[in-house]
Amino acid sequence: xxxxxxxxxxxxxxxxxxxxxxxxxxxxxxxxxxxxxxxxxxxxxxxxxxxxxxxxxxxxxxxxxxxxxxxxxxxxxxxxxxxxxxxxxxxxxxxxxxxxxxxxxxxxxxxxxxxxxxxxxxxxxxxxxxxxxxxxxxxxxxxxxxxxxxxxxxxxxxxxxxxxxxxxxxxxxxxxxxxxxxxxxxxxxxxxxxxxxxxxxxxxxxxxxxxxxxxxxxxxxxxxxxxxxxxxxxxxxxxxxxxxxxxxxxxxxxxxxxxxxxxxxxxxxxxxxxxxxxxxxxxxxxxxxxxxxxxxxxxxxxxxxxxxxxxxxxxxxxxxxxxxxxxxxxxxxxxxxxxxxxxxxxxxxxxxxxxxxxxxxxxxxxxxxxxxxxxxxxxxxxxxxxxxxxxxxxxxxxxxxxxxxxxxxxxxxxxxxxxxxxxxxxxxxxxxxxxxxxxxxxxxxxxxxxxxxxxxxxxxxxxxxxxxxxxxxxxxxxxxxxxxxxxxxxxxxxxxxxxxxxxxxxxxx
Amino acid sequence: xxxxxxxxxxxxxxxxxxxxxxxxxxxxxxxxxxxxxxxxxxxxxxxxxxxxxxxxxxxxxxxxxxxxxxxxxxxxxxxxxxxxxxxxxxxxxxxxxxxxxxxxxxxxxxxxxxxxxxxxxxxxxxxxxxxxxxxxxxxxxxxxxxxxxxxxxxxxxxxxxxxxxxxxxxxxxxxxxxxxxxxxxxxxxxxxxxxxxxxxxxxxxxxxxxxxxxxxxxxxxxxxxxxxxxxxxxxxxxxxxxxxxxxxxxxxxxxxxxxxxxxxxxxxxxxxxxxxxxxxxxxxxxxxxxxxxxxxxxxxxxxxxxxxxxxxxxxxxxxxxxxxxxxxxxxxxxxxxxxxxxxxxxxxxxx
Lengths: 509, 351
What we know:
Radius of gyration of chain A: 24 Å
Number of domains of chain A: 2
Main location (chain A): membrane
Oligomer: heterodimer
Strand order of the largest sheet of chain B: 1-2
Protein name (chain A): ATP-binding cassette domain-containing protein
GO molecular function, one term (chain A): ATP binding
CATH architecture of chain B: Orthogonal Bundle
Number of strands of chain B: 2
Domain ABC transporter (chain A): 5-236, 254-497
Strand content of chain B: under 5%
Radius of gyration of chain B: 21 Å
Membrane topology (chain A): Peripheral membrane protein
CATH topology of chain B: ABC transporter involved in vitamin B12 uptake, BtuC
Helix content of chain B: over 70%
């Protein structure tokens, strides 16, 4: 059988980086093929070449046995290659139909297009009203638009780039049904992910990349998640050591926390209450855009709230701003690294001053102690193996993962009483993620209370003692991770808890 | 061969220094070509505008007197610009500062001396700051763009000046000219024997050090830089953006007011309709040409003062209007802004 797509010796160089080094593999008709690797392993570069966004420096691409050059994405779509990107390109103020019509290469009359869309939707169970305005749709529904857009071209290869990172477990299941149906009809699927259990559940073959090189091709169904992870990182995974951690008294008490929405597409926080004890790691799960950012801002003090809403060690701090809350021992790491957690055009030493100046005495009579800042930045770089030229390196010159390690280290080494982190290992490789997780557990073991806000449910389940789900700005009742059920968490993530009105569900996305 | 812009890993410090110098040189070259094309001796024009004031020692005092207010105002403006606060109304704050100083002087009549002069200057500083307070309040309370409000207030200040010098403050012995009476000698800043060099020039030489300390070594300077480059990071770090806007606007106004009061007490000694000579606007160019760096402002202030003095000179030697200097100043600003991109990007050959 001729392979649908075959890559031979594909090489792509960027200044100073070999993004793909003689990569070759084949995707058969009707096969669901996983492309697995850590951030920076070269997955994105590889699919960008298949989809015609970039051209390879060396090597060849065979399409149904014939050698081809894919000049641009339009040419790729003409060949029958469709792609669903991780970040959607949709206009919020337009309807589903209008968005799809805008993305079509051919000019099809609206009525005809609508009929086609409805046909594709019924065929694959992608239920969606074409006249809905995108801003009222959930992330999962928005993804369906992108999938329908790709399916309208009758692709024989569909590339899915990290499609599940924003979905609830139930939505993931629905997506898999669609993908399996497509494959059974002969469409090949190239599935990019680093979520191993999904790959085990869905894919026939997995190609594993590491540092731009192909390291293995395996059959996920016979591998374990751990064995694939170890191939992916090229070493053995360390388990988190979490013994010897007892829970102490109440450290962080949040009671009836409300915060108005920030702008028309923001999410308001409504009556959030939870308690984190000393030594406890408290997880907040949820699909992106359900109030996670607002929660972090309300806890860090960047958005002050009612005085009694937040209590730390028995002191009411709700009315305090970020600086005073730090004085009470509250540190935080927001999701956005560049421009929020760090100033991109400042050196790492100057970025240390941003959050550590008062706690670590870097200010003397209104003047900054540059030496203390450099020393502390050096300690963080050392302790968290940050790859940087030194404390004088610009924050923006670091890779995302390394900057994340630096920022996490900057807060953890200050030994805060309460640490609130959002997406602590986002974009960080598995080895470094394990180190960050270990550092969080160690901090908790010393008696700090930790809140982890993450969209990665696996991360929360392995790290946290207690878990709650945020949806539409409301927090579910916290549950112990040891007796949490995935189904139940999934339903909560999808917004099924009690008396919520449809209007609020729409607003939540 | 095709070229493309490639992002640098780190901003280039070389380019930070090279681009302002190159802007001045390119301005001179364009000047030579443009005047030659117009049938004027281009080299003579550019020489008189850019070089003669530097080479002829008797012009140095003129340069110093003109540079002092430019440097002082530019220092204040560059602080605000670092925080992304765009005060375009320094000219107005300069005028109000001078008027406040003159008002205090008038109140003391013929009395003078150290404390009166100090009081006049203090009044100038406070007056300039209060005039800048208006756009600061409008911006922080009502989100009014400070570019427009501060600029428009300049025209208001001109009307205030016109009213005062043509009305209540008019010199009774001044043959009905709209101007204040000359300051009594006891209210003038001390100046060098037989020269126009006054104490304000010393102030303009010391202030860059103070501003350097403030910008690079103090927590306040850090706050200004963070608020200017990443407002969200500033909030995360616990810095108040509104407070920063207030502070930088007030300092900018205070510096302009200081320059105005020094100009009154040190150089012009009276206020008439010709008192506002555009220092507040030229200082914007000084701040950018000086790369918002205090010592850069000092050097750039001298360069701009040279072109102003040179423009006067060229009027008599090569018979071109003295507004030519303004064209050159604008060209420098244009070129410096255009070459800014080279700090963060490099030109590379396209593969």
